[in-house]
TrEMBL record:
UniProt key word Transcription regulation: no
Protein's UniProt name: TRAP transporter substrate-binding protein
Protein origin, superkingdom: Bacteria
Gene3D superfamilies hit by this protein: Bacterial extracellular solute-binding protein, family 7
CDD domains xrefs: PBP2_TRAP_Dctp3_4 (cd13665)
Principal location listed in the UniProt entry: periplasm
Compartments in which it is found: Periplasm
PANTHER family (UniProt xref): BLL6794 PROTEIN (PTHR33376:SF15), PTHR33376
Record keywords, A-Z: Periplasm, Signal
Organism whose genome encodes this protein: Litorisediminicola beolgyonensis
Length: 339
């Protein structure tokens, strides 16, 4: 009888332990490679982490790791393999792996990062996700930064002035545009920008205004070629390990679903718009800025057409209709700009 009592007691404890474990909070680890003061972190990633805890009433919490577990290009695999639970990065940091992101990096899309980000998220949800490039992760958001421009350590008043220069790029389309313009593309994450320029590994850089300002490049670059809508753009992703997502209760998954996707990318776009405006305001007195005219942009559209066509074909290589995806992106941009 004593043995039976002990067995029943042990079984009861196991049930209680299981129930307690099920009710315990889920702690997600988030890998961040940008400095904590960068607006991508301080104004997007950290508020998003806090919002997850809020909408799940504390049942799911996010811990941002104090140091990155690997370089930016490793982020996706760190998440996919479960080394970390959540991460953000740029698709173009691993060239050829995320072909569909090229659709959001085309030249002269829009000067509004909210518009480009929301349009990209909508196209991803409607078409690009079918390519299966993000297998093994839960896509929380795909978005863009603000319109990318050209900055150089020498004077530029035309895109032809970068011919022969080594230009740091960080996206699929920017790489192709740099080559088209006779420059030598230099790959590297944004966090290495100062190092690349100060050590003369690169002569110039394709960047949005915010990033030039944040990484204190104003004392290295001397001029900027600026075009309405951006000479190019860069795609970003924020992803979660799929198994970790699946382990979260349906109730909490539903709560988190209300703050990812379009709601999250709108916040990303708002962050970039504000940061770019502040960046340009801070740098205008120290740079020679050439603002491209409408005629300049019309000529560049024609000149850039081969790159646009090649990257539409690249998207199609992933198994989706690249032309239809690009046309949907432009249509969504037009609708969003009219709002």
């Amino acid at each position: 009888m004593s043995k039976l009592t002990n067995l029943l007691g042990a079984a009861s404890l196991a049930v209680i332990a299981g129930a307690t474990s099920g009710a315990a909070e889920t702690v997600l680890t988030l890998n961040s490679w940008l400095p904590p003061s960068h607006p991508q972190v301080s104004e997007l990633v950290l508020p998003f982490a806090a919002e997850i805890e809020e909408v799940t009433e504390g049942r799911v919490k996010v811990t941002v790791l104090p140091a990155p577990m690997g370089p930016p290009p490793a982020t996706y695999d760190l998440v996919k393999n479960g080394v970390v639970d959540i991460g953000y990065t740029v698709q173009g940091y691993t060239p050829g792996r995320f072909k569909t992101s090229a659709v959001a990096e085309m030249p002269f899309l829009t000067s509004d990062a909210v518009v480009s980000s929301v349009a990209y998220q909508r196209v991803h949800d409607a078409m690009l996700a079918e390519a299966g490039e993000y297998e093994g992760v839960k896509v929380l958001a795909v978005h863009t930064h603000g319109p990318g421009q050209i900055f150089s350590s020498s004077m530029i008043e035309s895109v032809d002035d970068i011919q022969g220069q080594k230009i740091r790029v960080g996206s699929i389309v920017a790489h192709d545009l740099a080559k088209l313009l006779g420059a030598v593309p230099v790959e590297g994450p944004s966090s290495k920008a100062y190092e690349l320029l100060s050590q003369k590994v690169a002569d110039g850089i394709f960047f949005p205004w915010e990033t030039v300002n944040f990484f204190s490049l104003g004392d290295i670059v001397k001029s900027a070629f600026v075009a309405e809508g951006g000479v190019y753009n860069t795609a970003f992703m924020m992803v979660m390990n799929q198994a970790k997502w699946d382990s979260i209760s349906p109730e909490d998954q539903a709560a988190i679903e209300t703050i990812i996707g379009e709601p999250l990318v709108r916040k990303a776009g708002e962050m970039w718009n504000a940061a770019d405006a502040a960046g340009r305001a801070s740098l205008e007195g120290s740079l020679a800025i050439y603002d491209a005219s409408e005629d300049d942009i019309a000529a560049l559209r024609e000149r850039f057409a081969p790159v646009v066509e090649a990257n539409i074909a690249l998207v199609s290589e992933a198994g989706v209709d690249g032309q239809a995806a690009y046309e949907m992106l432009l249509s969504e941009i037009e609708k969003l700009e009219a709002e």
